[in-house]
Write a structure and sequence with these properties.
0% strand; rod-shaped; mainly alpha; 3 helices
Protein backbone atom coordinates (compact mmCIF):
# COMPACT_ATOMS: atom_id res chain seq x y z
CA UNK A 1 0.00 0.00 0.00
CA UNK A 2 2.78 2.39 0.88
CA UNK A 3 4.43 1.76 -2.48
CA UNK A 4 1.17 2.50 -4.27
CA UNK A 5 0.84 5.83 -2.42
CA UNK A 6 4.40 6.77 -3.33
CA UNK A 7 3.79 5.85 -6.97
CA UNK A 8 0.62 7.96 -7.01
CA UNK A 9 2.45 10.94 -5.47
CA UNK A 10 5.31 10.59 -7.97
CA UNK A 11 2.79 10.40 -10.84
CA UNK A 12 1.02 13.53 -9.54
CA UNK A 13 4.35 15.41 -9.28
CA UNK A 14 5.29 14.37 -12.80
CA UNK A 15 1.89 15.45 -14.13
CA UNK A 16 2.23 18.83 -12.38
CA UNK A 17 5.72 19.34 -13.80
CA UNK A 18 4.68 18.33 -17.31
CA UNK A 19 1.59 20.53 -17.18
CA UNK A 20 3.59 23.44 -15.78
CA UNK A 21 6.14 23.19 -18.53
CA UNK A 22 3.39 23.06 -21.15
CA UNK A 23 1.76 26.19 -19.70
CA UNK A 24 4.91 28.27 -19.44
CA UNK A 25 5.54 30.76 -22.21
CA UNK A 26 8.95 31.99 -23.18
CA UNK A 27 9.54 35.25 -25.00
CA UNK A 28 12.90 35.94 -26.63
CA UNK A 29 13.72 39.34 -28.07
CA UNK A 30 16.76 39.61 -30.30
CA UNK A 31 18.17 43.07 -30.90
CA UNK A 32 21.09 43.73 -33.23
CA UNK A 33 23.52 46.30 -31.98
CA UNK A 34 25.06 48.32 -34.79
CA UNK A 35 28.15 50.24 -33.85
CA UNK A 36 28.96 53.41 -35.77
CA UNK A 37 31.40 52.81 -38.60
CA UNK A 38 34.56 54.86 -38.67
CA UNK A 39 36.52 55.92 -41.74
CA UNK A 40 39.23 53.32 -41.14
CA UNK A 41 36.63 50.52 -40.96
CA UNK A 42 35.11 51.73 -44.22
CA UNK A 43 38.53 51.79 -45.93
CA UNK A 44 39.38 48.28 -44.78
CA UNK A 45 35.98 46.96 -45.87
CA UNK A 46 36.23 48.60 -49.32
CA UNK A 47 39.94 47.95 -49.95
CA UNK A 48 39.38 44.99 -52.27
CA UNK A 49 36.87 46.77 -54.50
CA UNK A 50 39.03 49.91 -54.60
CA UNK A 51 42.06 47.88 -55.70
CA UNK A 52 40.00 46.09 -58.34
CA UNK A 53 38.62 49.38 -59.67
CA UNK A 54 42.08 50.94 -59.88
CA UNK A 55 43.55 47.89 -61.61
CA UNK A 56 40.75 47.77 -64.15
CA UNK A 57 41.19 51.50 -64.87
CA UNK A 58 44.92 51.03 -65.47
CA UNK A 59 44.33 48.07 -67.80
CA UNK A 60 41.63 50.01 -69.67
CA UNK A 61 44.06 52.93 -70.12
CA UNK A 62 46.75 50.61 -71.50
CA UNK A 63 44.34 48.99 -73.93
CA UNK A 64 43.09 52.39 -75.05
CA UNK A 65 46.62 53.72 -75.62
CA UNK A 66 47.81 50.84 -77.84
CA UNK A 67 46.32 52.30 -81.07
CA UNK A 68 48.14 55.59 -80.41
CA UNK A 69 51.60 54.01 -80.14
CA UNK A 70 52.37 54.03 -83.91
CA UNK A 71 51.22 57.64 -84.18
CA UNK A 72 53.40 58.71 -81.25
CA UNK A 73 56.38 56.77 -82.68
CA UNK A 74 55.93 58.43 -86.08
CA UNK A 75 55.70 61.87 -84.45
CA UNK A 76 58.90 61.27 -82.46
CA UNK A 77 60.70 60.06 -85.60
CA UNK A 78 59.49 63.11 -87.57
CA UNK A 79 60.53 65.57 -84.85
CA UNK A 80 63.99 64.00 -84.51
CA UNK A 81 64.45 63.97 -88.30
CA UNK A 82 63.45 67.66 -88.52
CA UNK A 83 65.76 68.50 -85.61
CA UNK A 84 68.73 66.82 -87.34
CA UNK A 85 67.88 68.59 -90.60
CA UNK A 86 67.69 71.91 -88.78
CA UNK A 87 71.05 71.25 -87.07
CA UNK A 88 72.74 70.39 -90.42
CA UNK A 89 71.47 73.57 -92.07
CA UNK A 90 72.53 75.61 -89.09
CA UNK A 91 76.07 74.17 -89.26
CA UNK A 92 76.14 74.74 -93.02
CA UNK A 93 75.18 78.41 -92.57
CA UNK A 94 77.80 78.96 -89.84
CA UNK A 95 80.68 77.39 -91.79
CA UNK A 96 82.10 79.78 -94.47
Amino acid sequence: MRVQVELDEAADQQRDLTGGIARESVTINLVERIEPEGPFDRVVRQAGSTLADSTSSAILFLIGSVPWLPIVAAAIFLVSWLWRLFQRRRKANVAP
